[in-house]
Amino acid sequence: MGPTSTPGPGAGSSVSSCLSFALIDNKITSGYITGNSFGRLPVGKAQRKATSNFRKRLKQRGMARLEVNVRKDDAALVRNVVRALSSPEQERAARALLRQHFGSRQVEGLKALLAAAPLEGINLSRARDFGRDVDL
Hints:
Blueprint lengths: L14 H14 L8 E2 L2 E2 L2 H16 L14 H12 L4 H12 L7 H7 L20
Antiparallel strand pairs: 1-2
Helix pairs in contact: 3-4
């Protein structure tokens, strides 16, 4: 090999270049948001189990895990709202204020939505249609 040639895989490449390739490959692997990786290294089974157990305990306590994307200017405001909702002293006043301004509409299914729909003045009957006559 001359001074301008670059060694390829298996052609005298160093161990460090193979390791950097493995880290780069691992970095692009999905799973960062789900907690399956920490930085560049994959998380071990014990850490995944601990994270899973923690999330189960949160769920049992009635907590929901959310990820919110907001503008940089609003980040502090959203953090303060979350702090107020989790503070025992402020939670009642914060919830009342938020419900007053944004409403407290619960998520309902299609069946509940149709049951609550006003049907006065809507004609739900139609003439029976026997299809069309086709000459074959």
